[in-house]
Amino acid sequence: MELIALYIEDYNGVLDSFIKLSSKFSIKYDHKSLTIRKGIDRDIYYDDIPSTLLIGQNGTGKTTILTFIEDFHYENENTGFMVWHSNDKIYVTCKGIQPSHISTHYSTKIIYNAVDFFTENDIFTIKSNNTVDFNSYLFGSRKGTAKNFIDISLSNTGRGKSNKKQEIAKIAKFINAGRSLPDTINQDKISILARLSLSGAERTKAILKDSDFRNKYGDMLISLFNHYYGKYNNTPTPYGYPSKEYQFIKYNDFMSYTNFKNNNWGLTFFSFIFSKLSSDRELAHSVSDVIFFTLTSILYSFSKKLTSDKHNADFLYLKFVVALFFSNDRNYINEIEFTIKDHALVADEDKVIKELIKLKKDVNLVQEIIYKLFSSNDKIRTNELELNFYINSPGTAADLISMSNALPKEFDALFSIEWNGLSSGEVSLLHLFSSLYNSIDKINSSRNKRKILLLLDEIDLYLHPEWQRKIFSDILDMLNEFNETISFQILMSSHSPIIASDFLPVDIISLTRGHNREIVTGTLESIGFGESIEKTMSQGFFLKATVGERVLKKVEELVKRKNDRSFINDNEYITSLIKNKFLTYILGVKND
After folding, report:
1. How many domains does the chain have?
2. What is the pLDDT of residues 196-210, one digit of tens each?
3. Model confidence pLDDT, tens digit, residues 38-68
4. CA 150 to CA 172: how far, in whole Å?
5. Is residue 378 domain-resident?
6. Cα–Cα distance between 37 and 425 in angstroms, integer?
7. Do 28 and 74 belong together in one domain?
8. 68 near 8, Cβ under 8 Å?
9. Are residues 177 and 274 in the same domain?
10. 127, 206, 294, 327: which sits with the fewest CB atoms below 10 Å from its CB?
11. 271 and 347 together in one domain
12. Are 150 and 127 in contact (CB under 8 A)?
């Protein structure tokens, strides 16, 4: 199934416009009469993937045409029709208008419900747009989703932390699955930065600064610490050390602290507990310390769920910190549960049980993430109360994101992931190819042969000219991986003459706007296949010149005042840079 033409009666400021989209047919629409004749099939050049490029200045209707096609997936009020060809049959999907007469040797069928037509014929549309959708920004985006339509545009990608993680996970899975990347991207350069925030110390400081809080709860916290310290001292000490059951206590450091304070520590033990955070080097090499400080952050959020009173929640949190410090990886949940039961101001027992079950699950997952971060990273850097893990393995990145996505949303501030050292162009390419591949792969799960119409709107934005030169060919290569089960068609728009040079001239639709708000179309057949980019720019992209306006004005001024030797001498440095022999001859200057 191939879309070969469309007619816009009234849509988005465009009126009465017929656009031919396939060079394989001779198609005309005049006085409501549609004529279709068979032409020359040139799809072999595109690996049998029909491809058309729309070019034109801003405002000529490139995006409008692509959006008009998209809107046939929705029940909108736009009026017009689209013409499709498949197996020597013509289908015309209509909205509010239809041709009064169709002249063709093909059998024809008028379709009044485009949505059903797409579903019955397994036609899918995938849209990618790298531009900012200002219409959606200013007036709101289209509400709801459409069947058989997938939007992978950059502007449609969520900006929140969870959406960002999903985007990175999708790209990481794409790479990890062994999918070939465009050779413009250095796969060795692709890495992620995982950030782990350790905010428990700052929260503890803020709580203890409150004099009313210290006066009310200080003695109880000291009593609790003494209780656990007494149990610790009575623990069997083989070989002169307490049992390794206390994974969060460093024996020598703790003994130095207690001996120095001589049982008169007041509330300073909280400063001691969090003192490791000031030792960047030590923290970066201690999994148990990182687990401990991460758990304190989790327990802070946990305490807020159990009581709405701020001081009560803060008191419960600090009790959790003490209990955690004197626990191990097998009994700390029990210690937390015991602390809650001992805390008279937490009354809702059912809620406590539910939250404890969730806490245990979340803590186990967080520990898995931390162990994976330490075992898989290529480099660790500390930044105040933050650990940065640099990871070069896409597979590990995908696993980490999958694990972190299973955590509650409240943990987003605790753990985040971003690309490390990739340019906007590289991220744009990775987004395009991974999104395209994953979308096609989902569609490909059916046994039926499906059809995909790709609407690629200015996807060359952010890309270096060399990448623009290769991107269309790279897309065709990727689509060929699915050519046994899916048939494709590409409709593309661009301002790039480099992109245009990859299309046959007959498949480049040049757009201008008429005086009556219609789109006027033409082709670049006069340019010729394989023509230079400079000629394509000057003849196909409506440029007045192939140099910048500032240069053009200066050259015109130099030529106009060539006999003014004083002016020429004042511009001697500029004229010395001119390499064009004809221009130097006109100006009467000699450059070696």
Report:
1. 3
2. 888 878 888 889 999
3. 888 887 888 899 999 998 888 888 889 998 9
4. 20
5. no
6. 42
7. yes
8. yes
9. no
10. 206
11. yes
12. yes
